[in-house]
Every structure is written in structure tokens, then in C-alpha cells.
Amino acid sequence: MKDTWKYFAACLVGFAIAGWAGQIAAVGFVSFLGNWQTLIAGTAALVGALLTIRAMRADPIEAKAVVLSFLTSKLAMIDVIWEFVDTALTDAEARDDAILHVGFANTELKFEEWAQELVELKAHLSPRFRMHLEAIIGEFQSAQRIVEQPRPTRDNTAEDQIERLTEVWLQIYRIAFSRIRRVAIKFDPELAASFDGRTISKLDETTTAEALRDSFRKKLERLRKDAEHR
Fold it and tell me: How far is the C-alpha of 189 from the C-alpha of 185, rounded, in Å?
């Protein structure tokens, strides 16, 4: 596909230039410049060829391949953190170390930057894939707000509530990642392979990342108030 459009575009440019060259050979350079109709026709042909090149560069099939390559690399990074989340929720012995790794997720998962890059790429996609990519962009932006939330520690949480809130914090990560997976596989089902072996949260359309963040904040505030009254 890539070589075909390059060849065709080169032919179009070649035809435009050849047309000019033929006119010059037939009537002479001075007469050619004086023939404004020939100039306009030749310029129009060249502009048409250049526009065709631009359109071919925006081939939706090739654009999707570029987006897939980008997403595959970013989903692999998410999968690493997701594995630590699953470990922290299921393996008591490895829990503390896994929690530390999840706590550094905001230095590894640059969701806002990734979303901006995808915004630039989506214009070249077909409408159907553009719609699915917009859903991924939305989930990336929501996930950015989640990774910015600090993990519960003695500095921001009553000591007797750290364990409970850490559990909630980890579950929120798992839900956010599950939502990203759900919209990613709508873009391309093969992206599901990026998360083989991960525990998927049960989701419904009302389980938004923003609602989860608000829920976590309310639980934290309620537990702090309970601790004050003891």
C-alpha cells in the first residue's frame, strides 16, 4: 500500500512537469511564459498532484497501523503497573513491594501526554475508528487524575485506616485499567492480548473514573471523621 501511493503520486507530479516541459519544447520558453492559460493549467495539475500525495499520506489503513503501534507500546506499560496492582491485592507476602511500585505509576504512565498525541493522530482515521479512539482518549484523561492521587500513608491517612483505604486505592486502579482495556478492544480486538492474565473488574456504564475518584475522597473524609470521634 505504502509503495503504491508513492509510485502513483510520483507519476502525477511527473505528468504535470512533463506537460510543462512539452509546452516549452513546442513553443519556446518565452512564449510559454506568455501563455497564461498554459501556466494556470500546469499549476493546477501540480497542485492537484500535491493534494493527492497529502491525501494518500492520510490513508486510514496506514493511520490505524500507526495508532495501533502507539497503543500497543502504551498498553504494555499499563500492564506492568496492572500486574503490581493484582499482586498487591492477592499476594500478602509481595503486597508491600507491589504497592510501592503502584505508587510510582504517575512517573511511568503519562496518560495526559498520550492523550494529546492520540488527538493529533485521530484526524487521519476513518469515522468509526476515530469514535473508538476518542473513547480511549477520554479514559486516558480520566486515568491521569487517578494516578495523581497519592497512595494512603501515615502522612495523609489515620494509621488504622491505611490498610482499608489502600485496598480501595488499588481497586480504583484496577477499574481504571479495566475501562481502558474495554475501549481499547473496541478499537481493535487484538489489543486484548496486551492484558493477558490480568484481573478484570466488572464494569457498567456508570462506573466512571471521576465517580470513583469522588467516592474515594468521600470515603477518606468519612473515615477521618470517624477516627476523630473515637
Answer: 4
